[in-house]
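Fold it.
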Amino acid sequence: MNGDRRQPAGRRRFRAVVAGVGLVAAAAGCAVGPDYRRPAIDTPAAYRAAASTTNDLDAVQSLGDLGWWEVMDDPQLHSYLQEALAQNWDLQIAAARVLQAQAAARVTRSQLMPAVAAVGNLVTTRVSERGPTTVPPGVDPQNEFGELDATMAAYEVDLWGRLRHANEAARAQWLATEAARQTVRQTLVAQVAIAYLTLLELDFELEIARRTSRASTDSLALTTARETGGVASLMDVRQAQIMVATAEAAIADTLRRVEQQENELCLLLGRNPGPLARGPGFASQKLGVGVPPGLPSDLLGRRPDLRTAEQQLVAANAEIGQARAAFFPKLTLTGLYGYQTVALSDLFSAPARTWQFGPSVSVPLFAGGALRGNLQLARARFDEALAHYRRTVQNAFREVSDSLIAYERAREFRARQEARTAAHRGAAELARVRYEGGVTSYLEVLYNEQELFAAELGLAQARLRELLGVVSLYRALGGGWQPKDSSPAPPP
């Protein structure tokens, strides 16, 4: 009867212990270590840009707030971008790294909760009746032992926030990896656009070379006929042949570049090398350039590489808290509750109950300077992450300014190149009229045709630089990472 009266008291004591453990774990709020605050950044009031663009710099809306489907107006390019975002290997690698970081953060977060496992054993033994050790008469030589327990492995009560700081650091690394994936996505959009526009420009160069080759071939036939008739000299024929050979060599070299550019774009698309379809021609390509760059202060929340750098800074700050918490006592709990019996029929009876609770406290007394060294290491890593973050921010401002200047100067250069090409075209036509009228030699025609050919190629390249300037500016402003079904601007 006394045993029956002690059983409820034991149960009450066990429940009190469990409740006390939960209360301690819930009240453990004495986290040591610095709270993260975004560092102050010397943000310029406006981007440095070419003089003709400064009037638009104070607008709140930015080109970077637009999705790539709003900036790049070419259905074929849209198709290639969607294919690349679905199949590009670099993007798939980045996505796998996000899953790894997410899983690692989940593992770290699990340390905040105790790990409980159920353990069951069923052991049957029999002692030999003919061996050196025998059982007494009337005793069954076969025994059974049963055990069923719920065990709690060593659980650290997070009194000083070490585990919470570890969880904060792991979560920051996860967010940094996700932002890095967005940076890869943003870079991929820009790379596909650049590769596609470059391919169209090479097609345009090939068209110029072939047109020049046809005109040169016709001119060679005319000059040969004039030489046969005694009107032109053999030198004129040779000079006409030079122009034909020059155009044909340009065709061969441009074909090489076209095919290699197709291979580069195929790699970005996740395809094997091969020919690719084109959309509208190079001359009809237009990009959305009517939206200004916006405010420099908004760049911190728009560019994913800046979010990566900041999350790495958050992780480094949390590691300081982990290092500080190591200086304080560590409380660890272990426990067991279950049933043990040699008669399986009595396994779940009250007398078969067993429980154990073992709190353990460890106090660091001497570690040879390891704890202080770890703290100094964490602080030094934070200083490195802080310098990296500030450098990344300043580099982002520089990239936007460089892109603004590059686009505006490329637009000016393209306008000048158009005027130069028009002048060369007029000079080439006049030289041909003068030659056919017998006023000048074919050398003048050859010179002006070569200059026109070079000017037309230069104009095509100038137009390409202007288009690529828009792509570069769009990427520098943080555009291109957004999924098509998402809102354009992320929260900081």
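Residues 27-114+160-329+372-476 form a domain with the Outer membrane efflux proteins (OEP) fold (CATH 1.20.1600.10).
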